[in-house]
Please model this.
Amino acid sequence: MLPSLAAIVMAAVLLYSWNIGYSGLSTYYAASVRAMLANPRAIMFGALDPAVTTTLDKLAGFLVPQALSAKIFGFQAWALSLPQVIEGAITIVASFVIGARWRGPVMGVSVAAVMAFTPMLGAMFGRPMEDGMLTMCVVLAFASWQRALMQRSLLWLCISGAWVAVGFQAKMLQAWLILPALLIAYLACAPLPLRRRIGQIALAGAVTVVLSLSWMTAIQLAPANARPFVDGTTSNNTYSMVFGYNGLDRLLPGAIPGAVPQLNSTPGSGQTPANSTATSQASRNVAKLVLPQFTTQMGWLYPVALAGIVFEWLAWRRSRQRVTTGPERLTEHVRAGTALGLLLWLFITAGVMSAAFVPHATYLAGIALPLSAFAVSGALDARRLLAEASRSWIILPGLILAQTGWAVFVSVTGGIQLRWLAPIIALTGIAAAMVLVVVRMRKVRASNRWYRAGLAGALAATLIGPVVWSLCVLGPGGGGSASDAFAGPRPSASTAHRHEPSIAPGPHLRPPFTTPRSAGLDHEQRLLVSYVTARNHSSSIAFATDTMAVAVSVILFTDENPMPMGGFSQRAPTPALSTLQSLVGSGRLRFVLLADYGKSQQAPGNPTVAADRLWVRRHCAAVLSGHFREGKAARQTLYDCASSASSDSTTG
Model:
């Protein structure tokens, strides 16, 4: 089976890396990588800017591999995407291990193949997104937990918790969604005395929590005046950012004090790009898992996966009626525990994601493995039933028809460009079901070519949809953007999607190996940078700005270090007026760039930044005006505060 696994991994790596030179940059996160390369303190605090004045609005663990890759290969789009390709390959291998331990090598290879051609993973693992690291970590956590179940090992249980903790650094609370599944399944199925099971779970849980919270706690323990302001909060508290802004606020807005309600804002009230992705129309719908924005990415195999769940439940009931000892009993524990763990993982994650705000389809990547595993398990069990003497043989043809009907529905609703797949899937699936019915009724041997043709047709009808959707990432512009990975065409309901700005192939990049330092700056942005650098003789901060997009562009494509005001959400109370005045008075800051809000535009509701803007306009001289945010008609004005440094900065 190893040659087959090697071929699958190679195919997956080829799929993920085919357009790696055109993967683009998620500008907000890429700016933080640039800051990490310029200043090691930016790595310690997960800062956005080289001056380390503001953190990202989430933990920055997923960016550390990208920064290491950029340090080795240079700051290129492909270098930032390379770690995710490697994470994808590791995920496929770990999926094989889980499947093989559960039901043998054939199961393992089949699960690895289905995972490799899950459309969402094909798009995600080729782009610099945090979901790739999270998916790898939770799959490795389950594989380690499975070994702990097999060996009754506390060490491997703690290793599983450590992988969850690493995933926490990538995407915070989303990594913890697997914990209830691991805890309950180990408690129910580990062949150990109850007291020992509880003790092992308690110790491994403590390891998980301590390691998960270690980085954010270290940041929080640093004195406020010695660390950057924590974005996504009004309280400068990492716990509010992690558990509020990026956590419970997506289910219960306002549940955690001190969190900026960025993800729950309403249109027209400072809504940020994170609210405006291709999946935004379905992001709050509790039935999102059956909507085309998500089914085309990971929901092709729902019917056969459901059959797999039912078959596993029936197998568990039969095992309860048998008396087993020794190795056979341990094998049954592993199979039952794996099935229960996968089932709980699937339903807990799917339930939370259904209820929560989900701005990107990749948020659901965590259920790819349970779905794939149950789908393969269901297909293998249905094939076995075809040879039985009872009437249960009809289950396989019926399942083929159900799966075919669902795949036709997904292909029709998923995007007009690939609707031609629907009749192919329908004809293939119906023909395969009919052939198997005829073969079974005539009691033809399994070696007969018609029997094999029927099974091959059933396999084709099941997989042609996700495989074709996955292969779409090989085309020009395939796979979505670096901030919103999406394989295949968009559903017609979201064709007018918007997403966070990213650096697309074309004049901005010379893929795959060269990115000019000034490639991302337009003429007016270069004018701004030239003006500031020519006059900043002693200032350590190039300029402060309330326009995040300008700050990000300058960080990405120059050696300057602008200071963002208000954070990504535009609602973080930073910098405080006293801090701004101190920076100006000490000479560390001379220029401030402010957006010019017209009558039809509404400034974000941020009292702190509003006070900063008022003070700058009263005490600093306007020296330059232009459209410094690329592609936008809004204007900004640059203010020179050099004269205010010698004045009484406490007035006004």
In short: Residues 388-492 form one domain. DSSP finds 23 helices and seven strands in the chain. The chain has a mean pLDDT of 86.
